[in-house]
Design a protein that fits this description.
This protein is α/β, with parallel strands linked by helices and 348 residues long. The chain has 2 domains: 203 residues, Quinone Oxidoreductase, Chain A, domain 1; 135 residues, NAD(P)-binding Rossmann-like Domain (Rossmann fold), CATH 3.40.50.720. Helix 4 crosses helix 5. The relative contact order is 0.16. The structure holds zinc ion (2 copies). One zinc ion binds next to loops.
Length: 348
């Protein structure tokens, strides 16, 4: 079968002919409906090397850590899944036995350091192929919802959902405000999730006018990046500041903005991986402000994201490509020229 393979460090992934996977014990073979292209893939193949990055991400493997598909065949010991049924794939794969994995949070597996891979598409063959084999435990049913457009929800949906769910106590009650910084794939979904699960006023900010127009169509009040940005955000909150800020960029400038506009007792969640540094002091940050980071999410939360999608509450906003066009999808992603989340449809 055809697959997009991360073949070597510091070079773009390539289309290759590889053997179709066999589902092992406890696994399911999925016919891939869609696989999303994510910025973190770019970090893996551009920035990592033998010296930089987790050893589990050494090449080669098939990319695609956010995917969805139809059950094609069941491996030994698997039952109860209907052939042809549509599922999202929970990408992270921990040991399955530790306390974190037991609560469906493989992202924080206590044995991650000794695992041979981090996720489907991150150290182990992922969904940028005609077929992928994954543990049955990692499947989240989609019912009759379209799995092709749903694929990015495994990451671009689950990652903001997890960050938002942990911040919900800050958003309970009338007159609350949330801020989304960075309106790429995750940011647009974050706006929609906030609108669907909270009553907060959702403020969104980005440098691109078209990204802000899209966020407005999802119900956000927008503020452009640039001079007066923090003041304009504060004004929308009536001067109180923002109860829950989600920084989908994570650069020094965006973290600084978040800390500038957060309310007393508010929460700032850094989701973006730009690695910006923030200098904290008792005297410069409002009392009881939480500054934290999150990574991906849990299996249970992916069921909740699927429920939102099935109810028509979130649109992942995809731009689709054939498997042959997958290298082009990554080229556009790197160039910042995509208009939505790039999803590769191996079977059309
Ligand atoms: Zn990702
Ligand atoms: Zn574990």
């Amino acid at each position: 079968m055809k697959a997009l393979v991360f073949e070597k460090y510091q070079s773009a992934p390539v289309l290759q002919e590889v053997p179709q996977p066999e589902p092992g014990p406890g696994e399911v073979l999925l016919k891939v409906a869609g696989a999303g292209a994510c910025h973190s893939d770019v970090s893996v193949y551009r920035d990592f090397s033998d010296e930089v990055g987790p050893p589990q991400l050494a090449p080669s493997f098939v990319l695609g850590h956010e995917s969805a598909g139809w059950v094609e065949a069941l491996g030994p010991g698997v039952s109860g899944l209907e052939v042809g049924s549509a599922h999202l794939v929970y990408g992270p794969m921990g040991c399955g036995r530790c306390a974190a994995c037991s609560r469906g949070q493989d992202t924080y597996c206590e044995n991650a350091a000794t695992m041979p891979h981090l996720a489907a598409g991150l150290g182990r063959d992922g969904g940028m192929a005609e077929y992928v084999a994954v543990p049955a435990r990692n499947l989240v049913p989609l019912g009759d919802a379209d799995p092709r457009a749903a694929a990015p929800l495994s990451d671009a949906g689950l990652t903001p959902y997890h960050a938002i769910k942990l911040a919900l106590p800050k958003l309970q009650g009338a007159g609350r405000t949330a801020l989304v910084i960075g309106l790429g794939g995750l940011g647009q979904v974050a706006v929609q999730i906030l609108r669907a699960v909270t009553g907060a006023t959702v403020i969104a900010t980005d440098a691109k006018p078209e990204a802000m127009a899209k966020a407005e169509s999802y119900g956000a009040v927008t503020v452009p990046a640039g001079d007066g940005q923090a003041e304009a955000i504060r004004e929308i909150t009536g001067g109180r500041g923002v109860d829950a800020v989600f920084d989908l960029v994570g650069a020094a400038g965006t973290v600084a903005l978040a800390m500038q506009v957060v309310a007393l007792q508010g929460r700032v969640t850094v989701v973006g991986i730009a690695g910006g540094v923030f200098e904290w002091s008792f005297f410069t940050v409002p009392y009881e402000v939480e500054l934290t980071s999150t990574y991906w999410g849990t299996i249970e939360e992916l069921h909740e994201v699927a429920a939102l999608y099935r109810a028509g509450k979130i649109d992942p906003g995809v731009q689709t490509f054939s498997l042959d066009e997958a290298p082009e999808a990554y080229r556009l992603l790197e160039a910042g020229e995509l208009s939505g989340r790039a999803v590769v449809l191996p079977h059309g």
